[in-house]
């Protein structure tokens, strides 16, 4: 295959909207150029429609039709990108669907014939000329021998199709089992059947598709995965190549989160889909359900753009599919179709024609439609001999008992109604258990007065689009189920009905038959404009354009995301340093990972207790006992929590964001700034108590310097609404004039006194540690690692050697003479600290007030410290390569590096301890 040089780059500095508008204008100009240069292309109405594709009745002419739509005018994405023959290069599009657009029939050991296969997706994509498309999918046949596989692959290559070979057992378990017996009923609100797990076969089949895609993938290709058969495919593809452009589109409804959560494999499927860059649905409702499922089941953040997981955004959007409306419009001029129209008009002269075209499927609402028609005839004797219902019911899955039962039920109802209201010369319902060819179908659409679409649940339903496209002369009326995706697009011009309400549908039939010509014209004009504007080609081009742009935006975000911590480098520099400082967060850093999505009571209690990760004990003991290493646990938790977890270690504990400090062999002291105003606590506490009572599974904590309301285990969407209400109430009431900061976490709201941050406290903490240990050599290695809120990330920049000196100095708070908290002592003034960067070795000593000079000479217990004015050395002698700031699970961070989970922290500290031990005593 020729190399793909398209790289998707756009002009630098443009906004997302500007890029997409530019793409749209390029497509328009390309189409205009094509049509003006090809005036002879006026016979496409003779070609076959998507119904031929769905019904599998096309001949070799249909195969050439596929080829005709494969070879379209090229679009110039980037100026100057041309093939050797001078034609512009098109981006390659790998369309991955369960079925290929052709089905294979074996004629001999190494001989195959190809026929157009069924599927609405086929018709939608055949008209797309903007891309060099290749199809990857199952050919609908089991080919166990290698000779047959080679021959079929060669035959399909001529049609730009690439087969995935599935054996009979995989097809049975994956397609007939998990796809059609589990996912399809679930997505259409039919509930889950009693089943044995077929998920393993489903994943295996998806992996087989991924293997074929990876074999044919070239850099720059767009891979477009389709439908519920391939929900696991995006993850498989991204596991192969994280840079691959992957989109996934669902052609069925996506159920509400309450329905989807009944699926045992719910979380794994959602996460697999989220591996895609862009996830598309036919309607906004389906997209909203998907985002809601991700927030409620996975506990992820839903945004207007999509779903965010630790800084990675999967875009979720609605892309309503369309049809090739020009084919239907032009087909009406073909003589063969005109003959069909004349025959139908003669056949049903003097009667209004109602039409239903559906697969004989439970979701199509055929029994409800026929019963509504019966009720209409009961209540309107005038119309009994003046209207006829033509119901085309295309058989499907005829070997499944439920479908056989549905067929018998429909036949019984039709027979009863025809017997009740029919005569020797005419019957009210003409029911056909077969499909129609394209000319006959277009003619039937053209003579219809009322189209009746009563789907109980339908992803889109393009029959309604086809009917509108063929009604330019007749101006017929569309009665459309509100549960079909097409209702979102054609609802303004159609009569929307609830198909379960037989009386309502019967009344709508009467409204349609008696509608004035002026109203029919107005309704039709609205829908006709939509159908001819929002075509299948526009749908595909828009999706791929959005996918390209989504990848560009993701790359821009990734460039701002720090790299993963290089553990080997961090350990090596640790071993060669002389005086090390390790600052470790606690919650979501040193704690055990908890299953958030399940929201089970056990996990909630477990996390609320904040227990140290059980695998950290030996590693921490080893690191803390190293005489060259000082360990500080810096946490927002209160002192009791840190006492319970760390009392046995030789380290420093800094509670409540550094406002309380102690070494584990000493008592707590406070480092709070002087005159810290806490008068706001009681009023804020009342607000937090109120919202805790009205938000199930939320809780709040009262600390010495802050109050925290946490709704992590509450319903995600309800919790966010409550948090928003709380913030509005706080700012307009209790804290409107208070000196406080409001810090919003992922699922928490914290109110703390102004200036209470980890970075603001770290210089006081560092000074106390330096004095207490009487450190005589500068600290030349710093590791600062934690899952800190944005407000507290100033702790990272505090140590940053590359910052200029006027930025690095933190404001020092004067030590207060406020009364002591029982069991603690006040922090004494500390040794003036200075930093040496890789660019400068100058001392950066802070000014010391007279009061501090007087008090700094005396330590509690009679100890004596050196006088600051007589001592001057660098507390920090920190070079760039020896500073490792690392955020845990937060990609939007000021830290230099990243680790994904607390488990990664555990693994890193274990390696650090092992390396330290293996190299002997420091």
What report would you give on this structure?
The protein has 922 residues and is α/β, with parallel strands linked by helices. The chain is 40% helix and 17% strand. The strands form six sheets. A nine-stranded mixed sheet has the order 5-4-1-6-7-8-11-10-9, with helices on both faces. Strands 28-22-21-20-19-18-27-31-32 form a nine-stranded mixed sheet, sandwiched between helices. Strand 12, helix 14 (366-379) and strand 13 (387-394) form a beta-alpha-beta unit. Helix 14 runs parallel beside helix 15 (401-421). The longest helix is centred in the middle third of the chain and has 24 residues, at 536-559. It is elongated. It starts with 15 loop residues before the first helix and ends with a helix. 46% of the residues are buried. Mean pLDDT is 80; it is low at 1-13, 35-84, 595-606 and 804-873. This is alpha,alpha-trehalose-phosphate synthase (UDP-forming). Residues 22-56, 809-871 are annotated as: Disordered. It holds the Pfam family Glyco_transf_20. In the C-terminal section; belongs to the trehalose phosphatase family.
């Amino acid at each position: 295959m020729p190399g793909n040089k398209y790289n998707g780059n756009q002009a630098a500095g443009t906004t997302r909207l500007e890029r997409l508008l530019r793409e749209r204008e390029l497509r328009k100009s390309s189409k205009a150029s094509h049509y003006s240069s090809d005036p002879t292309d006026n016979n496409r109405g003779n070609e076959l429609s998507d119904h031929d594709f769905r019904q599998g009745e096309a001949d070799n002419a249909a195969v050439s039709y596929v080829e005709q739509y494969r070879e379209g005018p090229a679009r110039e994405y980037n100026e100057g990108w041309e093939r050797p023959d001078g034609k512009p290069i098109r981006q390659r599009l790998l369309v991955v669907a369960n079925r290929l657009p052709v089905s294979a029939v074996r004629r001999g050991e190494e001989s195959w014939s190809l026929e157009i296969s069924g599927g609405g997706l086929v018709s939608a994509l055949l008209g797309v000329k903007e891309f060099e498309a290749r199809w990857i999918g199952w050919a609908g046949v089991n080919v166990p021998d290698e000779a047959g596989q080679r021959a079929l692959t060669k035959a399909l290559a001529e049609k730009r199709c690439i087969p995935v070979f599935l054996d009979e057992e995989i097809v049975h378990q994956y397609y007939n089992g998990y796809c059609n017996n589990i996912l399809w009923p679930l997505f259409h609100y039919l509930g889950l059947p009693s089943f044995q797990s077929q998920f393993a076969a489903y994943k295996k089949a998806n992996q087989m598709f991924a293997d074929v895609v990876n074999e044919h993938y070239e850099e720059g290709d767009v891979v477009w995965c389709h439908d519920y058969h391939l929900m696991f495919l995006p993850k498989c593809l991204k596991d192969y190549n994280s840079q691959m452009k992957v989109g996934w589109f669902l052609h069925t409804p996506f159920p509400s989160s309450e329905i989807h959560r009944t699926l045992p494999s719910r979380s794994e499927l959602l996460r697999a889909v989220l591996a895609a860059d862009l996830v598309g649905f036919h309607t906004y409702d389906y997209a909203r359900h998907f985002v809601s499922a991700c927030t409620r089941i996975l506990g992820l953040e839903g945004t207007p753009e999509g779903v965010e997981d630790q800084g990675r955004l999967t875009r979720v959007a609605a892309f309503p599919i369309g049809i090739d409306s020009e084919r239907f419009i032009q087909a009406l001029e073909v003589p063969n179709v005109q003959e069909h129209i004349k025959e139908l008009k003669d056949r049903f002269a003097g009667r209004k024609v109602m039409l239903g075209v559906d697969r004989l499927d439970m979701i199509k609402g055929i029994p409800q439609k026929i019963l509504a028609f019966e009720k209409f005839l009961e209540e309107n004797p005038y119309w009994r001999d003046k209207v006829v219902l033509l119901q085309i019911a295309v058989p499907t899955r005829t070997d499944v008992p439920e479908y056989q039962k549905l067929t018998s039920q429909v036949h019984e109802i039709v027979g009863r109604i025809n017997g009740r209201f029919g005569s020797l010369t005419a019957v009210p319902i003409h029911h056909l258990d077969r499909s129609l060819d394209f000319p006959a179908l277009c003619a039937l659409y053209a003579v219809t007065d009322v189209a009746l679409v009563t789907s109980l649940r339908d992803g889109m339903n393009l029959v309604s689009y086809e009917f509108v496209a063929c009604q330019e002369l007749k101006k017929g009326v569309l009665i459309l189920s509100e549960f079909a995706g097409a209702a979102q697009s054609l609802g303004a011009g159609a009569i929307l009905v609830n198909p379960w309400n037989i009386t309502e549908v019967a009344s709508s039939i009467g409204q349609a038959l008696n509608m004035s010509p002026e109203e029919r014209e107005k309704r039709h004009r609205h829908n006709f404009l939509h159908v001819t504007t929002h075509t299948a080609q526009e749908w595909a081009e828009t999706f791929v354009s959005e996918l390209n742009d989504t990848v560009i935006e993701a790359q821009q975000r990734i460039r701002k995301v720090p790299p993963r911590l290089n553990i080997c480098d961090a350990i090596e520099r640790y071993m060669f340093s002389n005086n090390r400082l390790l600052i470790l967060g606690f919650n979501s850093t040193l704690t055990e990972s908890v299953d958030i999505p399940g929201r089970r009571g056990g996990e909630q209690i477990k996390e609320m207790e904040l227990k140290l990760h059980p695998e950290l004990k030996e590693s921490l003991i080893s690191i803390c006992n190293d005489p060259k290493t000082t360990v500080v646990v810096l946490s927002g938790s209160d002192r009791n929590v840190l006492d319970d977890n760390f009392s046995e270690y030789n380290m420093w504990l800094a509670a409540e964001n550094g406002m309380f400090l102690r070494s584990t062999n000493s008592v707590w002291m406070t480092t709070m700034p002087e005159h810290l105003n806490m008068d706001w606590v009681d009023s804020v506490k009342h607000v937090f108590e109120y919202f805790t009572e009205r938000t199930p599974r939320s809780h709040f904590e009262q600390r010495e310097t802050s109050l925290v309301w946490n709704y992590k285990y509450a319903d995600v969407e309800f919790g966010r609404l409550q948090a928003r209400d709380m913030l509005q109430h706080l700012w307009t009431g209790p804290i409107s004039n208070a000196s406080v900061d409001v810090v919003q976490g992922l699922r928490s709201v914290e109110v703390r006194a102004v200036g209470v941050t980890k970075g603001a406290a770290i210089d006081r903490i560092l000074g106390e540690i330096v004095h207490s240990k009487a450190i005589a050599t500068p600290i030349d290695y710093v590791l600062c690692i934690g899952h800190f809120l944005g407000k507290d990330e100033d702790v990272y920049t505090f140590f940053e050697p590359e910052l200029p000196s006027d930025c690095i100095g933190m404001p020092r708070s004067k030590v207060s003479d406020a009364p002591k908290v029982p069991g603690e002592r006040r922090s004494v003034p500390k040794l003036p600290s200075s930093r040496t960067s890789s660019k400068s070795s100058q001392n950066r000593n802070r000014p010391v007030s007279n009061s501090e000079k007087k008090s700094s000479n005396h330590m509690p217990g009679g100890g004596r410290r050196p006088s600051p004015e007589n001592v001057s050395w660098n507390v920090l002698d920190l070079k760039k390569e020896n500073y490792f700031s690392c955020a845990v699970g937060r990609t939007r961070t000021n830290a230099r590096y990243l680790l994904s989970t607390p488990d990664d922290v555990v693994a890193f500290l274990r390696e650090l301890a092992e390396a330290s031990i293996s190299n002997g005593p420091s």
